[in-house]
Amino acid sequence: MSWREAADLIGCTRHAIAQLIEQGHLHQRQVNRAASLSRASVEAATHHYATQLDKAAQARASREQEHLERTTPPDDGEVWLDVTTAALVLGVTPNAVRQRINNERLPATRRGRRWWLRRVDVERASAAAAFHARADTSD
């Protein structure tokens, strides 16, 4: 069986056929013509290759799920805003929001590498800033 036929049967590339030969999953036959593979080894490698693909897909799905859990807002029924959105509501830069979080002037929750703020808290801070701005101009 040729490499191309083996790749079609297994459902992989010719490069993967070379790797399967190196790993010992495919056996080359000694014949007078060019590069022939044992049909039995190709059929056995088909199962092995499918198993490898399944494991890789499961690992990828697991990593994606972990990433979502680390980067999504808490799921407690509240409306959560990221730092950029909170900065837009407050009329400041994202760095100013992070400074307020670090100075504990604005409550936030960290999930992975992201900060999440309750919309209620951001709106309260925005209202307080508007009140102080109005009080400063009325003096």
Tell me what you see in this structure.
Pfam families: HTH_17. It comes from Nocardioides gansuensis. The protein has about 140 residues and is mainly alpha-helical. It folds into two domains: about 5-70; about 80-139, Multidrug-efflux Transporter Regulator, Chain: A, Domain 2 (Orthogonal Bundle). It has helices at about 5-10, 15-25, 40-70, 85-90, 95-100, 120-139; strands at about 30, 35, 80, 110, 115-120. The strands form two sheets. It has a three-stranded antiparallel beta sheet. Strand 4 and strand 5 form a beta hairpin. Helix 4 (about 85-90) crosses helix 5.
Compile the SSE list and pairings.
Layout: H1 3-10, H2 14-23, E1 28-29, E2 36-37, H3 39-71, E3 80-82, H4 83-90, H5 94-102, E4 109-111, E5 114-118, H6 119-138
Antiparallel strand pairs: 1-2, 3-5, 4-5
Helix pairs in contact: 4-5
